[in-house]
Predict the structure.
Amino acid sequence: MLNLGDVALPIFYLLVEPPEPSNLKRVSIYTLLQETELALLRCFMALLHLPTDASRILPRGRPFTEAVLRHRVLPSFRKSSANGLDPVLEDAARSAPVMCVLLAQRIPDWLQRVAESRPMVVMSQFDDSIAAAGSLQGMHPALLRGHDDLRGFYRALRSACSDEAQLSRLSEGHREALDQLSKLDLLADRSTLDFIPECPLPSPVQGRAAAYLLNRLSNQVVEPALSSSRDIDSGAIPGIYSAAARGVLALAGQEDSDAATLGGSSAEAAKAAYTAMARTSDVASKLRLLLEFGRELLALNGDGIFIAAPAVRNDIVRGRVPSSAVLDPGHSAKMPAALRAMRDFVAGGSQNHFEPQSQTRDYKIARETLLLEQRFVSCVSASLAGRVALTPYQLPFTDGSVFETARQLNVAIERQTRKVTSTFRKLERQLGELLPADLKARLTGRHSGVQVLSDLPFEWALIDRWPLCLTGPVARIPLGMMRWDVLCAALESRATISKTDPSRVLVLDLIESHDNVREYSKSFRDVSDSLSQKYRYETPQSAGEFREKLAQPGIDIVVLDTHGQYDSANDQVWLTTPSGPALMDQLLPDQVIPPVWILSACDTSVTGALRGCLVRRLLAQGAVCVIATLAPVDAFTAEIFVGRLLTDIYSPVNPDGYNTLDEVIFATQLTTAMLYDPMLPLMRRAHGDQKMQRAVGGVFSRYFSWVTRYPSVDPARFGHEAAFVLGKAIDEEGLRTVFSGLDSAGLVRPETLLFSTFGAPRNIDLVS
């Protein structure tokens, strides 16, 4: 008999949604999620319980390793409209060893044609679709209804495997493996960790995303159930999951002797825990031992955290949309009920009756939409957090007033008013107050990085007197107007950057010779060349030439040096090129773009922008990490920040200090925020004043003398100590009076913090 471990049988999941929306009227007005994706919510909920590879369903004698693969390698999927199937997807569908289709509505004609050439599982919550699938060749239906999702899936999968094994299109090994699977009770015989009990799904904000992942770890769910308790601590289930996942990861190393999977544990500690668990047959004792071991590891190494923070868009609900967007007919009449539902939902209450009666209906529809979105975000959080091995937390909806503070900050920066710093501090406080106390405590302590899914700049949330991005690596992904399959692809992608080959950096220099900021672009190149950082500089003259430059082979990083401007009326970002202003859609090639983008241009990801966000566009086309600006940025600041970042990659003080891009970005932002942000006004004032230039140079000399002796960057201590050292150096160089005057005038600002990191920089390895 063939060993199923000898072949791979990846399951090709295809989700079929209603037609693609063409404008905002087909997008939810609350958090701007695609209505077609909300229609697939029941399919997404089922997908989180399904296997990734049919050959891994059965036990292979390594339960901890199997659990790690099961909960780390979540099902990948592609999406198609009911209107038609992309030829590339059709080829993938016809060639995949195993296929499962999840439908949001009727069976499209093109799917029937694919089913004529290969068997497939077809799942839907609609009776008519399941009835139709049962009568069609090649389709093995399973109804998404009640608690029978898994029974239906495994029953249909077994039947599809039997049919597939009779076809000659696959290799003999694949057919034999499928034949074996068709003879087994796959649900009853599947691999599990039987000492981790099933976790009923709590409400989304009480840890539902973590419960999904905990259940994938144990694989014990037969009938997915909802929790009836309303008193669950929002951090309880994420805490249990993180300890269990870390412990299982370390124990998996005892099964395959792979030191890389020890999860931060010593081999001796993992061996002791593995032996202790093997000696007991009591499931409660095994679970206790696992959680104790996992918590010990977390105390030593910290935990990576995934935060989903949706916010309702008050402005959109009130009908304030750019001219490019179109609201539903009758939106004005429904607006009072929608606003009331929004306020009640955020406050945790509800109402049942209104006058006129039509408002009762509108209120109910609005509230149900918000509930759907909250559940949808839980599914997205579980899927994304599992892919990057982070513990998911989902925050309650906030009312979106933070968007208004972000808008005020943008206006203050654009107009160069004295309110920049005070407005930024207000925004920091508002964002920090949205974090629950238990999550804030975890962020204050040791953590290995944070991924945020939100349209709000939570990288600035105040944590123990410092913004979150200065406590550890932080990256964000916009929530609104993004597709789930695009988000999954962004977090699944991996890339490498050669630390010894700066020629793989493409600098698209679009600043013209007569521009008053040209001196900073020239200075950037002169300094980089002097450090032997020979980047590839190009100045494309047209959109076509821009696309050609990006299509060149051997590019790891793209630095876009130009002017950007967000047009709020039309919700667009315009970039300056030698041939005139251009939209990003006009500049990108059709193929996958380079993995890392540094947008040294103003307003490239303005908080609150709908379609006018370059980050969404770049992530959708293959970028893994994008560093973009949330507001207008001074050219001098951009030169310093981008130059420092690239120097930390290609000419670091400690060549072995960084392994992944997120570590470099964090170190760069920490040092620039602590040193350059306070010093930038003094540096500008010293221009042309040799005495002050010497004093400023003395401050830098004293600071660098201290920092080079600093043993390591400990975020909990570094910020306080760096601020003290810098303040003392300013005093000793006789600059206190000037500095205090600049500070009082509102010129000492968090300038380099205006660069934010998006995507998954932890997926980009730095290699020599």
